[in-house]
What we know:
By secondary structure, the protein is of the alpha/beta class. It folds into five domains: 3-99 and 192-287, 3-Layer(aba) Sandwich (Rossmann fold); 109-183, Arc Repressor Mutant, subunit A (Orthogonal Bundle), CATH 1.10.10.160; 296-387 and 558-657, Rossmann fold (3-Layer(aba) Sandwich), CATH 3.40.50; 389-546, PCRA, domain 4, CATH 1.10.486; 697-778, no CATH class. Strands 11, 12, 13, 14, 15, 16, 17, 18 and 19 form a nine-stranded mixed sheet that branches. Strands 3-2-6-7-1-8 form a six-stranded parallel sheet, with helices on both faces. Strands 23-22-21-20-24 form a five-stranded antiparallel sheet. The longest helix has 21 residues, at 510-530. It starts with 8 loop residues before the first helix and ends with a strand. Residues 293-570 form the UvrD-like helicase C-terminal domain. GO terms for molecular function: 3'-5' DNA helicase activity; ATP binding; ATP hydrolysis activity; DNA binding. Its EC number is 5.6.2.4. It comes from Anaerocolumna jejuensis DSM 15929.
Amino acid sequence: MSIYDTLNEEQKRAVEHNKGPLLILAGAGSGKTRVLTHRIAYLMEKRGVNPWNILALTFTNKAAGEMRERVDNIVGYGSENIWVSTFHSTCVRILRRWIDTLGYDKGFTIYDSDDQKSLMREVCKYLQIDTKNLKERSLLSVISSAKDELITPEEYELRAVGDFTKQKYASVYKEYQKRLKSNNALDFDDLIFKTTELFQTSKEALTYYQRRFQYIMVDEYQDTNTAQFRLIKLLSDGINEEGSREHNLCVVGDDDQSIYKFRGANIFNILNFEKEYPQAKVIKLEQNYRSSKRILEAANEVIANNVGRKDKALWTDNSEGDPVRFTQFDRDSQEAESIVNEIAQNVQAGEDSYQDFAILYRTNAQSRIFEEKLVVKGIPYKIIGSINFYARKEVKDLLSYLKTIGNGLDSLAVKRIINIPKRGIGLATIDKVEEYAIGNGISFYEALRQADYIPGLQRAAAKISSFVSLIEILKSKIARPDYSISDLLEEIIEATGYIEDLKGQELENEDDRIEIIGELKSKIVAFEEAALEPPSLSDFLEEVALVSDLDNLAEDNNVVVLMTLHSAKGLEFPYVYLCGMEEGIFPSYMSIHAEDPETEIEEERRLCYVGITRAMKHLSLSACSQRMLRGETQFNRPSRFIREIPRYLLTMEQNPYNSNPFRSNSHASLVPEFNSRLQPAGVSRPAPGSFKGGANGSNLSASGIFDKNKNFTQAPKEFGGNNLGTIDYGIGDTVSHIKFGVGLVTNINNAGRDYEVTVDFSTAGTKKMMASFAKLKKLS
DNA sequence: TGCGTGATTGTTTTT
DNA sequence: CAATCACGCA
């Protein structure tokens, strides 16, 4: 029996597809990584393709690492010659070799978003742009979108004619790009952009890679942006020995999981693949191997509310599974505590371990309260993505030393550390040096070396030269072949007295900070040990620039993981808690109030689909009627996505913390149908001592229970009353249900604002349901 | 130059 | 509730 026999029919067809473009529409959990890895194996084993000629592109290092590992496992030999890497690393690798043709130095550094912001700050200062009105972040996002669309500063300027704001953006973009170049630095978007630029200017480079990459695979194709699309297209446009274009391009994606529009992802890349390549073969993978029937159905029902999707229907042979749970809490603290307690109980019961649980949320800020509760309970956990390790202050400081030593042209790094620890070199001095540097067309560091010639420095000049000689000494040391990066770091800490300085500052979390430095040391050591030959400083800096939090997930083994829905894509967990299912949180306030809410809500819905389909066995959704967000209390109604899940798939619970639901402080109804009109979630910014505004447009005003204009302090009291509608059936009556047909009412419970009715259906079995959802009709 | 204070202000998601 | 910023003082 061969390894290919374990594949289903469609998977097999995808794996065995011969030449020409192939689009694999792979639903969530349909085994797409399996198909990709088996296809690579198949190409090598059965079609004699040289591993050297295969390129597999992913978006995250984690995905790349997984694919590499799985390929290694099924391919006997030669797998190390396959290029399996992220778009960004691939581009870095190419640029390291060729970027001099674009006028950059091959030792370029990569700027992260903090660096970008610092640089943009300088640009704004230089161009005298008031960053009160135009924030650095928004300018950067304009530039980022331009780069995603492969628009150069010059083109941007051309398009900006007659538009004052755009002309301003154009000048910012130009200056920003100029400074990046003089710092010999590239930002994330440049990595892709410059690679396409390289391929368009250097026939030699393009031909080289076209010849090399005769088979190209792209994972998560729905997330590609225009620049990435162009890159793939250029690479796959090569001519084979017979002189024809084969386009051996295999892309895998799921339009329903396209969640990176904000980052420039162009969903038409996947929707129009067949137009771009009319000869393309399309294969759909619709069998899900991950989730229970109920979870999958919930996901299908939610995503069905989107229009303009590629037609597909996911199904599974897995068991029915437990119902999906929805719990409505009063407060975010209760939500967190309840979830954390539940995880603790489950683990204590012995069936499951911490790593089986994931807590997913829309925004990073929501992790905080969970962290609090997890710490109290002593549960091991890992929060992905909130702050990247390499973005920590201490780490950035020390890395800036490394960068300064490795690439003196990176002025940002030099400026960052010139006064860390304090050397008495202040802003005024830096400005003078900067002026001199610009005036003489030299780098900032070069200007520092000439400090003696800079007018007006006086005492600072001596301080600068001692800094320069420190760097120079370190530079000469790293040139020695036996001197490692970890030695260098050690030396930097020693020579600068960095740790002593840290201790001297008497910060409250001093120990954490020192521990972080230790962690950096061990990461460097690990990097050096993993390398086949002694890595260079720039190798390490490159690794650091491209690694994300998520990539290290496998390092911590048995922990509960917390992350955003975006980060969760591609992962799976037996238990998934999808929390903060509230209007204004998820879907986000931004999407509800966007210029084009329809489109934005669809993206949120895809995100919800991604979240639901992460769950294998147990899915628990929750919302809070009251939530603290950045120092203010929000009152939110349950998310519309809850309502999109059919009732018969859900069990609902309300305020488990209140034994008496009538005393609940809840301001939002559990019953989504109750608020038939969708309106913005209410946010109050109360003046001290007085609540005003409030749950505008919520069910409460709609129901007439209280008026928008009334004070909130009074509202909860008034809301004590019950909303129980009347039901015209009782225990023992026969009723009919729209989906389940005819059944016998066996029990009715008062569940706070609603009745929970238990019905014994002749065909569908016994179901518990909320009276207001079930719309039961009395028959006798 | 550097530090402390109070005020202001912000919010999605990330390679 | 943060993080950032302007301002004033040593």
